[in-house]
Amino acid sequence: MRTQTAKKTARHADLLIFGLFIASSALMTFPLILQMADSIENWGDPLLNAWILAWDVRQGLSAPLNLYDANVFYPYGNTLAYSESLLASALLVAPIYLLSGNAILTYNALVFLSFVLSGFTAYLLGREVTESRAAGVVAGFVFAFSMYRYGEFSHVQLLTAQWMPLVLLYLFRFLRTASLRSGLAFALFFCLQVLSSFYQAFYIALAVALYAAFVALRWLAWRTRPPRNTLLKAVPLAAFIALIVVPPSLPYVTVQREMGMYRTLQDTYDGSAALMHYLSVPANSLYSRAGISLFRPTANDETLFPGFVASALGLAALLTWRANRMAVGYFGALIGLSFVLSLGPNLTVDIRGTPIPWLPLPYGLLHDYVPGFQAMRVPARFAILITLGMAVLAAVGAARLLAAMRGRQRLGLSAAFIFLLGIESISIPVRTTPIEVGDRVPEVYRWLAAQSDNPIIFEYPTVQSRYLLYTEEMERLGRYQYLSTYHWRRSVTGYSGFFPPLFWAIQREAQEFPSLSSISLLRGLGVKYVIVHTSDMDSDRWDEISRRVAKLDADMRPIAAFGSDRVFHLTPGVDRGQLRAEAYLPDTHQRGEAYVAFLRLLNVNDKAVVYKMPTEVTLRATWSKASSPMVGQEHQVDLPLYIPKGTVVLPVTLQEVPPGVDGLAMEIIGGPLPAQALGSVGLKTVTRPSTLAGHADALQVEKLEVPSRSFAPREVLPVRIKWRAPAALERNYSIFVQLVDGNNRAVVGVDTEPLQGNYPTSRWQPGEVIEDVYALVLPANISAGRYRVLTGAYALPDMDTPRLMDSTGGLVDQVIAGSIRVVGSDGRLSSETGQDIRLVNGVLGNIVALRGFQAVKTEARPGDTLRLTLFWEALDSTDADYTAFVHLANAAGQPVAQSDGQPAGGRFPTSIWEPGELVPDEREIKLPANLPPGRYQLKAGMYLLPGPRSLSVQHRRESDDENRLYLAEVQIAP
After folding, report:
1. What is the value of pTM for the model shown?
2. Options 2.60.40.10, 3.40.190.10, 3.30.200.20, 3.40.710.10; CATH of 573-686
3. CA dist., res. 530 & res. 752, Å (int)
4. pLDDT band at 832 (very low <50, low <70, confident <90, very high)
């Protein structure tokens, strides 16, 4: 009976102490308890962790096998492993998220619970070591409300160290008694701690290993045996831990291997503690408010001052170490080892000081030889073990002091310890920043949630700096990612502890967004919707974006607006074929120098070719001598992460040309590009001549080629030019290539250095012919018609031009190629006329013939629409744009309904027709609602504005005096 009463009393005492930590946590984190549902510490890491918790709960219930394939950084997988996955923490607060759907409330509840549970579990550990509840409460206050934890207030993954005390508590019991129950509890809490924070897995593993070493040394020193079956029971416990911990760890191993996600030793210097960090206090602490110069107030995560009260109590424990030598020895060693490791690779004295190079520390060895240390960036966070060790030593010291007291004195001293610990460390108010939740979430995100096809999205603006230097940029990304908890659509950007290669490619392109190149990249990534937040940019930037969108026409069109948020639909674009590869192999080389070839890649599709990781293509270069091939050499060439619409030129540097070699052949033999021969060239060796001052540079265009087919808007027009340098060139010239209309106005152009800057003109050999390809992307709003291509050269900064010669050697200002034909978008030229065609074969002015039309219904009613397709054939070329017409005429020959306009809706004006070409021309004629019943005739023809002057009908009997060809009779019913 007494035993049951004692247990009941103990439970009541524990519940009261648990309540004490709840009340204390509410006070020590004020005003968090009042703003848990709609405020957060800041918009960076806290929002990231709020998103992680929500993702864990949602995905863990709906698709647990794809848990790590989060909705950010598309198209990469395992993106949850770019940061902590917080699995155990998500399990702890899952009911809150499931009931509320509020990721902010869920996150803040976890932060609050971390203080409550850290205090209570440290209390349990302190009580275990000292056999004193009051001393245990001291341990709880030191551990839960340390200044270190205030410094890490925005990192919930580091706050959730509440399982560490229980890991050690049950480890002590297991190694003391070999109790399987204690062993299972140890394994369970070890797994919970690891799955709460993989970062802190190293810390708790170090603490466990150190204690195991202490116990083993004691067994050896005292020549005692461990409790029976201790080691035998440890094996299945280790297997249990591995079974629970290893599977969630594998995505991290995969990411580290595939993405190179590791920290160099140099990366750890900024995260290492300096000696003066151990005098740093939070900016809101009493010491900081009092302006005591001894301390360094800071708002960052390295507020490592342990406090005078905890230090004094710990010193009392050290002075009385014989009474509890195992605990004092172990936790003292844990504090000392953690302190040394927190200093990083080299000792630093001042906070912003320089590490002392001649004083290396053990951390460097652990980084180089212990698996997992390469993932850590901030050695100063070993301070959590210092805090835990200080908590237990403070409990031991408090227990020794309390043991000398009786009754009310003991109670008063216990209260004094708690009060002083709280006063010394309290740093309130903690920072809270409002954030949208529930109905206050921007409407655009609810719209995204309603889209049923799980689209891929891109939110703009993103970041401007390569290293995320600006807090507002980080917070912007964090906010976008948090708000995705209201729609869960896949995004090509994100915010985490690691950023994959394509993230930075997207950010570079975003600087000029929306541009053809950025649109091409987003298409290559499969983006469907672009969300532009105009409130996150100044008005000038939004005006510029609006102007650019207007020029993109159908490529990117607005489809919705919600306040300051705009939604644009990105059309998928057209696939016109595979990535084309070719080589430019110079036919000369300088004696004694490396030979440089050029791999040229042409992407004719509207969307970029995208590689998730740095990718190589393997080339084989084979030298030949007297037409006999020699041994080939393999070369790896790094491909860009993405190849946008247009041309990319990559230099390929080979060895010095072997003596006697007179030829070179190159081919692709490996990588993502299909194996293929790239070409061959005969080689001649030249010696670079000296140039003379005042020499007039000359450039000759030996050949300028454009494809002989028609082009549509948004297509790539490849312009191939062969340049020749009659003599050595003094300057480096830029090349311009333009597409001009009939009024010599440029509609699109490129300005670039030869071979995209990889082969400047000053390096060209006299007589060398350099072949280059320039990709002109036709604007979406280009008008149908004929255009010409012209090219020239200039030098910066004075815009000096070389003497330019055409292929005949004549001096010209510009070299102009023959015209190309641009047809309208969505149009087609085809000789497939289909079925049910009525022949006409009427000739108009010996320029065009109407060969037939697709049958139209011969009976209709007023208000109906007649639809038919005419088939025109070009008989001769013309510079005029004729208007075609179809009339429905009454018995007097007067039109009662008609369709007039350029053929094919203006997509194929007659000025670009070529002899023999068949042009389909779809027409609609709306019949008047009051059209009298009777018989009517359909007639067609062409005329030229102004005027109009109709083309005369020839070689066709069925026509009228107005040069209209008869097509069919239509009966209009009443």
Report:
1. 0.77
2. 2.60.40.10
3. 30
4. very low
